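Work Package 4 report. The design task specified in the project plan requires that, given a folded chain encoded as structure tokens, an amino acid be chosen for each position. We show below one input record used in the internal validation round.
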């Protein structure tokens, strides 16, 4: 499971998931502490959401 850093952009996170053929990634914050989980489906939905929606 990929583990992008908390400051990774949405575009970078999508690319990491695509390259690793993964659909879920853990998000690590400072001191490598778990901050959350990012799903490819949710990242893509947010990325392609029309402005102002």
């Amino acid at each position: 499971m990929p583990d992008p850093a908390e400051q990774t952009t949405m575009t970078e996170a999508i690319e990491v998931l695509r390259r690793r053929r993964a659909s879920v990634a853990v998000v690590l914050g400072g001191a490598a502490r778990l901050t959350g989980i990012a799903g490819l489906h949710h990242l893509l939905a947010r990325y392609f959401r029309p402005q102002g929606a």
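The two ends are 31 Å apart (CA to CA). Validation will be extended to a larger panel in the next phase.
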